[in-house]
Amino acid sequence: MVKKIAVLGSTGSIGRQTLEVIEEHPDQFSAEILTAGSNAPLLIEQAQKFRPNTVVIADKSKYKEVAEVLQPLDIKVFAGEESITQSVECSDCDMVLTALVGFAGLKPTLAAIRSGKAIALANKETLVVAGELITQEAIQHRCPILPVDSEHSAIFQCLAGELQNPVEKLLLTGSGGPFRGMNREQLQNVTWQQALKHPTWSMGRKITIDSASLMNKGLEVIEAKWLFNVDPENIEVVIHPQSIIHSLVQFSDGAIKAQMGLPSMKLPICYALSYPQRLVSPDPRFEFKNFHQLTFEQPDLNNFRNLALAKEALKQGGNMPCILNAANEIAVYAFLEGKITFLQMSDVVEKCMTSLPYIKEITFDNIFETDAETRARCIEMI
Ligand code: NAD
Ligand code: MG
Fold first, then answer.
1. Sorting pLDDT into bands at 50, 70 and 90, what band is 104?
2. d(C-alpha 20, C-alpha 307), whole Å
3. Across the beta sheet with 29-36, what order do the strands follow?
4. Looking at residues 278-296, what average pLDDT do you find?
5. CB under 8 Å to 178, separation ≥6 — which residues?
6. From the CA of 268, which ligand is nearest?
7. DSSP assignment, residue 128?
8. Ligand nearest to the CA of 237
9. How large is the C-alpha radius of gyration of the chain?
10. Does domain 3-147 have CATH number 3.30.450.20?
């Protein structure tokens, strides 16, 4: 049986690598839906190659351009963000891979869960802003959420066969980004161009900035809490600059299991698509002879305050992680436009966390309100 995959965000970094995995395993997977924000030329090219049932372009002004080329190929073409959600609901695909970036991933992920599709989750922001509600929905609809994020995939792989065994601690690794080891003074002058040069991973712009500021690791701590139901105090971040150990699990007898390999997102993507099977990969292998040492450090929470802010947001719970996420999204794009400095990103997030109304019991309605309100406040502030 060929698994039909909806690839949401197919023109992005994760989306493109997902299509590589699908292309390498035509006997296992096919692309059923492809969606993009605004990159019409690439979406068209992907659709011509993979012949999905449906494509959606979120940017409505690009509809004509896409439809003219694809409709003769018998591919349904829709436009607008709401069409992403609708095509997921109406589709008979087997799995939805969520590789949209940011809060925009929440609605389609929720729609996919409610229509009973398995989720391969790359869009971590969904679990950051509404982890409690999303996991409840997933349980209610008996819908598996398979992690694509490399750290969470590593933990998931370490947990295979350990269902009965209590977990003592999750150890999330992170490279530390391009500014690892810098003090406040040095961080004052870093530019967005430098921030976009990640030492070990090639990714979309938003997550690359998040990696430089350690917000990505903060979002991942929150993501791990919801995926694995582990208390926040038992989730530890370890800086590991070589990005070879992708994360670890410590069990109650003190044993630690790690998942290792060269940094590549194709492995976690493929594992999420093919779980519980492992498929043959043509990619290069890790060789011990090429790595003389693997090193580990503590994260610097004083100079990289975003990680501390994310942990605080998780501790407070309610709508606080949603405030953190919305403020961070606005701050990251403002930094990329040169409107604020690297260190001001944390200031903006912190100001939002202390000034927006805190709500303890979250609902989808108040999460959408919190997101909109935080963005508006943030834009004003900047
Ligand atoms: P990206 O920016 O490269 O791609 C994002 C995709 O989403 C593109 O196809 C874009 O067209 C689409 N998109 C953006 N805004 C949209 C909107 N409003 N409506 C509809 N579509 C929209 O991002 P990425 O690096 O591929 O990351 C995607 C997600 O995966 C993020 O949540 C990120 O945190 C997570 N992730 C990425 C990596 C990685 O290696 N890139 C690793 C782990 C997790
Ligand atoms: Mg990650």
1. very high
2. 32
3. 76-79, 54-57, 29-36, 3-8, 95-98, 118-121, 145-147
4. 97
5. 194, 195, 197, 198, 199, 212
6. 1
7. H
8. 2
9. 20
10. no
Phi and psi at residue 146, to the nearest 5°: -100, 125
Q: Which of 163, 164, 162, 191 is nearest to 179 (CA)?
A: 191
**Ligand closest to the CA atom of residue 150:** 2
* 18 vs 42: CA distance, rounded Å: 14
- Name the phi and psi angles at 143, rounded to 5: -115, 115
Question: Which run of H or of E encompasses 311?
Answer: helix 305-316
| pLDDT, mean over the chain | 97
Segment 317-347, tens digit of pLDDT: 999 999 999 999 999 999 999 999 999 999 9
Cα gap 230→174, rounded to integer Å: 19
CB atoms within 10 A of CB 139: 11
* pLDDT tens-digit series, residues 248-257: 999 999 999 9
C-alpha distances in Å from residue 32, one per residue of 150, 197, 210, 274, 306: 24, 34, 31, 16, 38
Domain boundaries of the chain, sorted by first residue:
3-147, 152-316
Q: What's this model's pTM, rounded to 2 decimal places?
A: 0.98
Distance between Cα 150 and ligand 2 center (Å): 5
d(CA 338, CA 191): 8
**CA-125 nearest atom, ligand 1:** 32
Distance 102 CA to ligand 2 centre (A): 14
Residue whose entry in the numeric block shows the structure tokens 């970036």: 101
Q: Per-residue pLDDT tens for 207-223?
A: 999 999 999 999 999 99
Ligand 1 proximal residues by C-beta, below 6 Å: 9-15, 36-37, 39, 58, 81, 84, 99-101, 104, 122-125, 149, 201, 203-204, 206-207, 265
Report, as an integer, the average pLDDT of 91-104.
98
Percent of the chain residues topping a pLDDT of 70: 100
Closest approach atom of ligand 1 to CA 201: 40
Name the residue among 131, 136, 84, 92 with its Cα closest to residue 111. 84
